Amino acid sequence: MVAMAFRSGPGRMERSRGLCEVHFLPLVVGVRDFNRTQRLRCVDQPDFGPCPQPLPQTSPALPVSSCELNKNTRRCHQQPLATHLSCRLYQTCDHAVLLSGGWQELITYQRHVQNLQQFYRMLRTNGFHREHIKTFFAGSGQLPAGDFEGVYPATEKAVIRNHVSYICRKQHCVDSLVLYLNNPTRNDGTMLLWDGNHNGLAELKERYSVGELLADLAGCRAARVLLFVEQSYGGVLAKRLRSSVKHPNVVLIHSGAAYWPTLHPAHCLADHLARVSGTSRLLESSAGLLNVTLAGAPCNATPPLTEAEMRREYQGCQNLPTALWYRTQNQNQNHRRATN
């Protein structure tokens, strides 16, 4: 077993005393094997647990971008994820981003696919449109084609960040923004995406830090941002959110995908979470944002909303009144003039 080391500053290794150490299986290749095919295999033995069943390995997808998030100093490849088409004029929609990197083939199992399947189906049950659910998984996005649409590899960090940033900052684009995070993590909360070059080192483009995620969500214009965190060291992200003034509409929820298949369109988030252990502190600080359904409908409306009203007024997408859209545009122009 090989332990991965991460630098937390110039010339300084991250302290691990008192913390869990993360060990990943090494890459074992044959002599003169320029394809670097993994030769390490798990073999079932008596009196030991069964070997986990990794997903079938597939060839990696073509690179979709060579852009940098905050620089335009080099030309980009054409991106199959057309983020700029995610937001339509005069329309606001519920959006979701599902991120499950996995880091390596040997530690990416069928249960990771099942987690995504359960959460994806829950989103669809609650009215999220297929085209507004983007899933980033493993090295080549190898997921059952019939169960998902909009699946991309987790290798392209810039594409992930650009998509989250864009839909967050676009006025009236998003009502409910849902992020589902299910990745290996460092003890500082940094998510490991995918070891694309198979060198065992978590390079900058292969990891997504808490600071980067918070920067992408800062000042998000969605009505609410729900972070469903099913990974280690979520407390680091929770602590940063509690002290932040740039994320008043962001709620972090510690619970697994297994809790969510039973969430239906009429269920109040606060009521559903109250039945999940360990959420009482969250409810105290975020009751206002959670006193709605996943699609943003009010809880305990009198008289109760019908299914038709839920679908028409809250689920999926709603058309914005033209007057509201133009009023917001004028306010933004006046703000820019005042700051110039």
Describe it.
The chain is of the alpha/beta class. Helices cover 26% and strands 15% of the residues. It has eight helices and 13 strands. The strands form four sheets. Strands 5, 6, 7, 8, 11, 12 and 13 form a seven-stranded mixed β-sheet that branches. Helix 2 runs parallel beside helix 3. The chain is globular.
Short description:
By secondary structure, the chain is an alpha/beta fold.
Which terms summarize this structure?
340 residues, alpha/beta, seven-stranded mixed sheet
Taken from the alpha-carbon principal axes, the silhouette is globular
Quick one: biggest sheet? Answer: 7 strands, mixed
- Strand-residue fraction? 15-25%
Which series of helices and strands comes N to C? EEEEEHEEHEEEHEHEHHHEH
Radius of gyration: 21 Å
Percent helix, as a range, is 25-40%
Q: What is the number of beta strands? A: 13
Termini gap:
57 Å
Q: Which spans have pLDDT < 50 for at least 5 consecutive residues?
A: 1-16, 59-79, 278-284, 333-337
Class by alpha and beta content: alpha/beta
Which helices and strands, and how do they pair?
Blueprint: E1 2-3, E2 7-9, E3 12-13, E4 23-24, E5 91-100, H1 110-125, E6 133-137, E7 151-152, H2 157-169, E8 174-181, E9 191-192, E10 207-208, H3 210-217, E11 224-229, H4 234-242, E12 250-254, H5 269-274, H6 280-290, H7 307-313, E13 317-319, H8 322-339
Parallel strand pairs: 5-6, 5-8, 6-7, 8-11, 11-12
Antiparallel strand pairs: 1-4, 2-3, 5-13, 9-10
Helix pairs in contact: 2-3
